[in-house]
């Protein structure tokens, strides 16, 4: 290959992608990751999940064939490591970036903490196996699960367990080479949640009543300012003839009554001065 041809190839290789090409590439990658995860985990994975979650879950699933991809020693047995990787990938796919919580959403879209039975149901895995996998994840430092207890008011002695608080260590994304992407996506998710929260408050009755009060006060102030402006204009226009008449008197000196009436446009009397 000539030097000219090699230079042209290098220029084409470093040509930046357009926005449309980036969008198509992201959509194709999401579809590929979702189909691969669906085949490996046994349940349908949506390609509309954030890119960083799909890519991290795929890297964890691929680590079953090459443990060096994860970079953390979790266990020795190969079959147990496969179960751990599947549970971890499922937790990543159900990870809420804004809330830093492994959870699910109900029919109303409200975020709720999930039980361990979610992993057993999706992965078709015995509950005891799921518990062992979660224990190994907690010991590795990649996963945190805080158990919750509730006390009944009717029976204070009765203590019932509730869904534990499940979190992922953000260092996991650094191990997979996705730390920067995870930070960006997490900040965007928090901004969307904050924007949604502020937007929902705009329809609050208390805020709406204060807005109506402010509108009425603003309209009242505008009316008062307009009335004051018209009053100043009328006063200014009424002062100008008097000032003009005084200037004429000063210039003419002593005037007779007839001359004063003429200046003021008053009718003249029948009797002479």
From TrEMBL:
Region annotated Disordered sits at: 192-246
Q: Where is the composition biased (Basic and acidic residues)?
A: 209-246
Q: What is the protein name for this chain?
A: Uncharacterized protein
